[in-house]
Amino acid sequence: MTILVTGGSGGLGSELRLFYPECLSPTRTDLDFTNNNQVIYYFNNHSIYLVIHTAAITSVRLCEEDRQLAWNTNVQGTKNLVSAIIQSKNNIKFVYISTACVFDGYGELYKENDIPYPENFYALTKLIGEHEISKIKNHLIIRTNFVSKKPWSYPAAFTDRFGTYLFAETVAKGITEILKEDLNGIIHLVGDKKISMFELAKITTPNILPMTMNDYSGPRLTKDMSLDTKIWKKYHLN
Questions:
Q1: Domains of the chain, residue spans
Q2: What residues have CB less than 8 Å from 172, skipping those under 6 apart?
Q3: pLDDT higher than threshold 90 for residue 231
Q4: 3-state SS track over the chain
Q5: pTM for this one?
Q6: What pLDDT was estimated at residue 238?
Q7: Exposed / middle / buried, residue 214 (Cβ in 10 Å: 0-12, 13-18, 19+)
Q8: 229 pLDDT higher than 90
Q9: Cys staple from 109: which of 47, 92, 194, 228, with CB 3.0 to 4.6 Å?
Q10: Which CATH number fits domain 2-225: 3.40.50.2000, 3.40.50.300, 2.60.40.10, 3.40.50.720?
Q11: How would residue 149 be classed by pLDDT, with cut points 50, 70 and 90?
Q12: What is the pLDDT of residues 72-91, one digit of tens each?
């Protein structure tokens, strides 16, 4: 029996592979989870007891520009995994990595029982994914907000966009700790401090430039992505 980690080459998937070095982490060539027949074949040929689904298109701009691609990946791909688990008739646990962006961002410190309201198509696909996951009895939805601990990808970062951010390595650790407790339902995996995206970027990129939401042009963004939790502990960013 083994663990399947989707999106193993991504920031979070790479960190999870360090915690689960024996896990299955297929490339897109080995497993195109947007292809239902491939997914069913893969599950029939591997003894899987746990799926950690990190794979997704997370670029808000790309999701808006190519909604079909975003839907196929974030929604249909998730549906295919859910379908394969149900058809297997095994008690496979499904861990779905969701996002703070399922909330509209006009409030702050959203808890697990707060009502989602997405601001953009990316967030909508993730929320629909949550709904699909709930069809499996043994499921866990982890909402979080993280970045890889590496230099910032852009020349500037928002001073007025906020979150209870974590680095991917801490999120991976948190996931392993939650799994040890065998919890189900929705859990927010969060940092213990609300900070701006600019403050977050300065940790890895001291010369990052400041910008505000007024400087931005593009799809609607979730302005406040800060999460709170009633169920789990909080983590230090560093």
A1: 2-225
A2: 12, 15, 16, 18, 19
A3: yes
A4: CEEEEECCCCHHHHHHHHHCCCCECCCCCCCCCCCHHHHHHHHHCCCEEEEEECCCCCCHHHHHHCHHHHHHHHHHHHHHHHHHHHHHCCCCEEEEEEEHHHCCCCCCCECCCCCCCCCCHHHHHHHHHHHHHCCCCCEEEEEECEECCCCCCCCEEECCCEECCEEHHHHHHHHHHHHHCCCCEEEEECECCCEEHHHHHHHHCCCCEEECHHHCCCCCCCCEECECCCCCCCECCC
A5: 0.96
A6: 77
A7: exposed
A8: yes
A9: 228
A10: 3.40.50.720
A11: very high
A12: 999 999 999 999 999 998 99
* Token output for 81: 């995994």
β-bridge mates for residue 186, sequence order: 141
